[in-house]
Design a protein that fits this description.
Layout: E1 25-27, E2 32-34, E3 39-42, E4 48-50, E5 55-63, E6 67-73, E7 78-85, E8 96-97, E9 102-105, E10 119-126, E11 129-131
Antiparallel strand pairs: 1-2, 3-10, 4-9, 5-6, 5-8, 6-7, 7-10, 10-11
C-alpha cells in the first residue's frame, strides 16, 4: 500500500476482535453492535506493550470506556493508539519513544471491553482516519 516503515506488533498475541470499517461487531459489554476502529490483540494482563513505531507521545489519559490510553504521533499524519493499558506512568506526554520501547502493560481498564479476554486495543490513524492495522503490521497472528 505504501513504502512506510513497517510497524511492529505492540504486543505478541493473537488478534481477537478485528478491525471493521463497515461491518459491526457485537459488544458483550454494551450488549449492542458497534463498529470497531482497531484490533484487539490478546495477551495476558501485565504483558509489556511496546511502541509500534518511533514517535512522540502525544497523549496519555484515562478514558471512561477505553481505560488508560496512550497516543503516539509518528509524524506525517500517522498516529497509533493503545488502550486498555495497566498504567500511564511509564511514558509522559511530549517524550520521544523508539520503535520497540516499552510504553505500558496490558491492563483491564477498558470498561467497554471488560467482558472479553485480556488484551490491548490498538488503532492506526492516518490523517484523522482509522486504517486497518493489518496494512502496517503484516506479522499479526489470527
Amino acid at each position: 500500500i505504501n513504502n512506510e516503515e513497517e510497524m511492529m506488533a505492540p504486543v505478541e498475541g493473537k488478534v481477537g476482535n478485528d478491525f471493521t470499517r463497515d461491518t459491526l461487531v457485537y459488544s458483550e459489554t454494551l450488549e449492542e453492535w458497534t463498529g470497531h476502529k482497531g484490533i484487539d490483540i490478546l495477551a495476558a494482563e501485565g504483558t509489556e506493550i511496546v511502541a509500534a513505531l518511533s514517535g512522540k507521545v502525544l497523549e496519555v489519559y484515562k478514558d471512561e470506556l477505553w481505560g488508560i490510553v496512550i497516543i503516539i504521533d509518528h509524524g506525517d499524519g500517522l498516529m497509533t493508539k493503545y488502550a486498555n493499558l495497566s498504567t500511564g506512568e511509564m511514558v509522559q506526554e511530549g517524550i520521544t519513544v523508539n520503535k520497540g520501547d516499552v510504553i505500558s502493560k496490558v491492563g483491564k481498564t477498558a470498561s467497554i471491553e471488560m467482558m472479553m479476554e485480556s488484551h490491548i486495543h490498538f488503532e492506526v490513524i492516518k490523517d484523522g482516519i482509522n486504517i486497518d492495522p493489518k496494512n502496517y503490521i503484516p506479522a499479526l497472528i489470527y
